[in-house]
Amino acid sequence: MTVRPGLTRVPLRTADADVIVVGAGVAGLAAAAQLTAAGRHVEVLEQDVTVGGRVGSSLVDGFTVDHGFHLVYPRPEGLAGLVGLEDLDLHPLLPGLDLLLGSDAHGSEVRTVADPRRAPGRLVSTLRAGLRAHDLHSAREVWSLLRWARAAEAAGDDLPWPQALAAGGLQGRPALVAERLLTAMLLEDPGGRSGGSGSADIGNGGRSGNSAAIGGSGGSAASDGRTARERLRAFLHAAPALPAHGMVALPVHLVGHLERPVHTGSRVDAVRRRGGSWVVVGDHGTWSAPQVVLATPAGVSADLLHGSGVDLPLPHQQWHGVTTWWFTADEAPSGSTALRLDARPHRGPVAATAVVTNVSPAYSADGRPLIAALVLHRNGHPEGQEAAVRVHLSELWGTPAFGWEVVARQDQAHGVPVRPAASAGLPGADAPPGLFLAGDHLDPGITGAMESGVRAAADALRAR
Q1: What is the pLDDT of residues 372-428, one digit of tens each?
Q2: SS3 of 396, please?
Q3: Could you list the residue range(s) of the whole structural domain that residue 442 is in?
Q4: Which end of the chain, N or C, is surrounded by fewer C-beta atoms within 10 Å?
Q5: Burial class of residue 293, CB neighbours in 10 A (0-12, 13-18, 19+)
Q6: CA–CA gap between residue 32 and residue 350 (Å, rounded)
Q7: What does DSSP say about strands 63-66 and 57-60: parallel, antiparallel, or unpaired?
Q8: CA-closest candidate to residue 232, choices 211, 249, 250, 206
Q9: Taking a C-beta distance cutoff of 8 angstroms, is the pair 32, 254 a contact?
Q10: How many domains does the chain have?
């Protein structure tokens, strides 16, 4: 059974709207909710029969299973203006990371690294995690990652992020941890599970990200250093969180702030300018408005604008793929509420893992634990199959995972859009009057998608 917002399919009227939003993923819904709150007449068109796009949840054997392992980053400078944000029952993860430093027949060595200003009780563990690393000359290097992420500008911002780490002076374990976290956030692992990424003295590692979905693909250009630092800042400044009852709460929440039902099952074929208005053409007929928000993937937006005379740098969209495993066990492998990463020089196939029910117990109807594990794709396939995933999870959690029950396995070829450094600019900045863009091709991840919707709405309101 899939949990989705209840929507009524309503035929489009032939009257004008103030704004037409094409696409009812979280980016389009965020834009529509903001515009509605400002008193605009908004119509939302969605080709699918449900809303939310790639964001949703299903009920599986008493568990709430999200469509991929996603996190929300409610950072003040991004989602602060989202209507009703305070009403979302967000459960934060620990503002830090559990790091696997070693594993052998005697057990696993795990240390917690956390920002002492937000998790003062973790200061000793954080220092120990740094001081035990053989390649650290000083405990001060533990904080170099924080300084690099928080800088307004940094050397290498326009370089692929693995090179930006080196240009920013990150070395040793801080550089390795940054690589592994970015690999999980952006689903990018250009260096491979055991290959270096270009950072100095790292001992090998991974890649970059944004979201809160976690995964990877091989052979694709890495995001730029600026994007990587933005993602790290989101993790550091806004504790990643889960909605109490699953990620489906996001589209449900946003739909609840609309005055009109979303027009699901409404295919859009073209978007054209006509005088001072925009015309949207599809299987519903023709609809016009002075403003249009295209909240669709970059390639779809380019197709809709083809022949309109609008020339925007919207490249054919490529994607990072990811597989999410969901397990349950007789008991939780740990009481931790942190994201857990492999900080050894050579990691296994799991990019990140967490006990979701430690963060939000409501994900389980009967109290059984729910464990998520994220595996990146390389050349279109997961980096490891079930047996390898179980071995790696046993190392990460320090307890055998071979008897864990599989609740669900989700293979997503379209995890997050590829956003190489060469395309770091926002194409919406060159859009003609009345046209606005939103989506995670502008800002990666679910949080980035919603932030882009908030930004598109603000731009539309300023333009009127």
Answers
A1: 999 999 888 999 999 999 999 999 999 999 999 999 999 999 888 877 665 545 556
A2: helix
A3: 12-56+248-317+420-463
A4: N
A5: buried
A6: 37
A7: antiparallel
A8: 211
A9: yes
A10: 2
